[in-house]
Amino acid sequence: MSKSDLTKTDISRLIEQLGTDKVKIFPGKGSEYGSASDWVVFAESEQEAVKVIRWAGESQVSILPEGQGALAGYGNPVCKEAVTLSLAKLNQVTEHSVGDLTVTVQAGTLLSHLQAVLKEKGQMLPLDPGWPEIRTAGGIVAAALTGPKRLKYGTPRDWVIGLRVILADGQVIRTGGKVVKNVAGYDMNKLFVGSFGTLGVITECTFKLRPLPPEETVIILEHSDVNALLRLSRRILDSSLEPSAIEIVNSSVLSTLLPGDHATFGLMIGFEDETKAVDKEQDQVVKWAKEEGIRVRETLRNDWAAALWQFFGELMPHAKGSESSAAKIAVKISTLPDQAAAAVQMIHYLAEELGIDAMIHGGTGTGITLAVLQPKQDQWAIAKELIQKVRQRIEEQLGYVVILHAPSFFKELIPVWGKTPAGLFLMRKIKAQLDPEGRFNPGRWVGGI
Questions:
Q1: What is the pLDDT of residues 350-374, one digit of tens each?
Q2: End-of-domain residue from the set 257, 292, 313
Q3: 54 lies in a domain?
Q4: DSSP 3-state assignment of 418?
Q5: Worst-scoring range by mean pLDDT, 20-34, 82-96, 268-282, 329-343?
Q6: Beta strands per DSSP E along 126-278
């Protein structure tokens, strides 16, 4: 079906059902990141979202689920004609059980709004992807987004206890429940967390919560030898200390976060706990750093520490960012935790050799390394070469290199997802069972799912 056919025939039926104020066209909306959709449908209820999905089935049109659109640069370009189904107006906190430490929110609820509501009761959702003011609950779950505090708190899979999901035939299902203890059996939540909107449209999320920690600190250390920082990191991880985050960073990250000259590499260590515990942990890290000959550049507490982590999260580009954000490439490298420091070092020196600006950081306790490349107009081929070299070395070590964010023309130069995961055949079977016609986000996910 061509875009003009869609415009002239089926869209009019959808407008009759929902009204002109909820069905809008934005010419060229998705071209920058490879979306096939200029049409956006703004559902204001789950029932309206069901109508859109049933209409899509009747009209043989694909659906691109979306919250605020920050993830438009993720994944492969969509391979079929589609409409964007925006859940941005489903943005209410519907139930907060303070005593049970659970909360239920609509999928379009912003993380920043949710955290503000929870803070009033001394609670938090312990997930920290960057840009909370444009991250929605549904988007965080669908893309399994995390931040540096993944080390202490884990991933969305660890905090989701229930979902409401619309399947391709318009059926609404509930997975899990609204209490922490549910009936034993297969955890259907895990099927949809990280499925990238390819199996169904999430309309509601129920999360477990934690009390807000009374004290927070972040310690920033520097050294020209990444191995010295790695030794300190291992010492902390092997001890009784409980860091919330440990990130090896390169000098570009340090220069962005703090003014002045910096060593080639740095280590950012966070703690969150009771005041006495945080004081003890900070003092111990400073002592060990001095023993290793590592410079303590800065220690920040509470609001200052939180502000630094927020700024740190904003290093990642997104699809709603400025023109400079659109020209960036974000790469995620997954390795064994002990290999993260080597990955940061490798990418730093490769980028330096090739003359490309790169901000790189890696979790020494998680094995997740992120690199943000900002090639100049004549450096896209060089950026491709850099990623290919990194991918070859990482995949030799059985790791993965995925392009999280890039303009659509760059995705035509190099595969987004890298090597095929071992479980792809099983993913295809699940996709065929839940979305047999490939209605949701066609071709966008790994293996063209």
A1: 999 999 999 999 999 999 999 999 9
A2: 313
A3: yes
A4: coil
A5: 20-34
A6: 160-166, 172-176, 201-208, 210-211, 215-223, 245-250, 265-273
